[in-house]
Amino acid sequence: MYKALDLELQRVVAIKFLSGGTMKDEHSAKRFQIEARTLSSLSHPSIATIFRSGRFQDVPYLVMEFVEGQDLATYSLAHKVAIDQRLELVRQVIDAVEYAHGKGIIHRDLKPANVMVTTEGRVKLLDFGLAKVIKDATRDRLGVADDLTATGQVLGTVSYLSPEQARGEPLDERSDLFSIGVILFELLSGKHPFVRDSTAATLLSIVSDPPRPSLAALGLPGNLEYVVSRLLEKDAGRRYQSAAELRADLERLREAGAAERSTVSLPQHRPPRLTLSRASKLAVALAAVVVAIAGTGLLWRWYRTTRSAQMRPGRTTIFVASIKGGADERSRYLAELITGEVIATLCKSPDLRILYVTEGPERDSAENVLRRQSVQYVIDGNLLLGGEDLKASAKILDQRDSTIVWSETLGGRVSDVYSIVARISSAVAFVTGVYVAAEKFEFPGKEAFECYTRGDLLLRTYEPNQLPDAIRELRRCVELAPRFAPAYERLGFAYIQHRNIGLDYGIENLRQGRDYFLKGLEIDPGPPGLLVGLASYSIYTYDIEQAERRLLESIRLNPGQHRHYTLLAWTELARGRTQEALRAVGQARDLNPFDPVPIENLIVFNCMLGDRPAVEAAYHDLQAAYASQIIRDISEGWWRLGRDDVAGAVELFRSSYQKTGHKLVALACAEAEFAAGEYDACAEHLEIWLKNNPYSMESYWLLCLTHGLRGDEEERRRVAWEGLRHCETYYNAFRSPALKVYKLYFTALAGRGDDATRREIKNLNPDQLDTFSRYLAAATLAYLGDREAVARPVVPYNPIYWVNRFYLKEIELLGGRE
Fold this sequence. Notes:
Number of helices: 35
Shape: elongated
Structural class: alpha+beta
Oligomer: single chain
Helix content: 55-70%
Largest sheet: 5 strands, mixed
């Protein structure tokens, strides 16, 4: 570049020649020509003007406006420039870049050396030698061919590249915005955010590291921290999407002075540290050579491979602490919703093991076992809500050395709640090197979302008297936002919950639940929760085979969700696969040892099996987990049954039922009373249960047996008729093979069985039946006169308590019917 005098117009100009070393390089000559034509199409006060181009002694040259002043870096060091003045300089750069982008041109080499500040304090953007024309119309008008950059080739000054430039990927306007972010960071801090000891290390830092020093350490106003952090997003999709959007934010800051924005956001993260072997260090050194020769496409592939090998030796274990809300109920619920959605998203990855506490204050119990569970990362955060504005701070802590590896303050409106979930989930993927499908639901609208949150909150209480209000709110949400899939899942569970909490086994509720699950799957086939809902529906309609298929599909889609394995364990039990059932509930416990539900099931299962040491071990573990009083009471009762303390179990269940009135406790009490031989009390509690749950077929079976042992044949036949009436209704609705067996059993017990009943039993396909149904089929034949049907073991050993402990009583009863 030469300073010269235009003799004709008597003005000072700058003349730029193509360097001698590249004059014979056709590629460089074409690029020089592109620069000339590009500059000729731009006319902006903050872009240096080109006057003409030509050749002198066959050397290409450009005659340009001469800018008297200093480059941006020199100017900022030489002058004591206030923050507002620095922002004004950057704003002028943004104006120039916005203008160029509007013309379909990206600069690709933005850096302080290419930004001159005149003696009047005006900015002039220089050097469009690496500019790229990205609009076809502009390219055609200027006669410019396609971009000259080879695939994977990196052009530009290394320390100011965007991550996509460093990876040799296709570029758009957002690449320039990242470079502006680097310039702004440097102006504000006096330090470059990504420069390291070598070219290779700098490139790796650009694609993976947060700025250094951290934005939080700079002590910037939150509004300015928001702007810089958003500019420096590694993912172009989370960056400012246009220079106009960035300029608008800076204009608002200028108008408000130093006032804080309501949406303060995004202190940047840093990735897990790479512990490089000697060979890896050599690879880093060689990578610099690779950069020089072929760009960074190969380096990026090397980095991904190395990082993957180091960060994924096995499942990465993450503990998700509850995001904590403010003092008001609405912010607490939104915090719970974000926590739950983050957990659900992360559980989709087979490479992650997600731990969380389902009930109670988790801190005391969690801290005691984090190290024992080999937890590598902890997710924690807080949420504040002011009207429709929210601010959520989240961080990821490396549990191994107590360092924060990622943190952000995410601000916005309530409508951004799913964006926050997606952002946290994406951060986990970045920190761990594990793929996470961080889907983001579309916000359904303010009123619909309010209905959804209220309905979900009511549903989570598991209180029978809250269920009607929960359904009303969720139905309103579906009316307002018919494409919002999460509402269909929660509404389906609301109807299923009538059965789940022992409130009502009614057919219509189950059908409604099924229909909402199916509708949700039509809208979005992905959410595994909808499949689990359908599996619950199949269990409650006695179609164990279908339930198992749906659970296995749900686990395939959502391998980290432990409660799916708990449900699967019950289907395995029902089909007589004892070891598979124990393995499934064991997986549930291993996936999340903080949840008391798998531990409760281990107590019950091992009590059924008569494995006292396993019962003791599981019960001991339950003491370290927070659980509701209902779960604790039921677990302790089964623990006592496992110790053969039947009287103690009866006493505990009776006391619990008197205190809570919970119908599930009434059923557990009836079981314990049957085991104790207290048949009158057992019959009383079973009647209480069946009054609310008239389609509980197994309970009719147990009540019939109870009256038989009491010697009350009239009552037994009455109950059999009642069971038959409800079973026929249920069978006509759902047609499962197990319900057909119950129907034939009650028919025989009520005295209506005949040869046709016997033929139907013998024509059943045993492969479609669970083990208890197979026993009932044999018992039905015995009641019809074929006592040999129960003279030998009729099914493989089944650890269901009713069968192993109680059906022998029925066989004794049948043996006495000569």
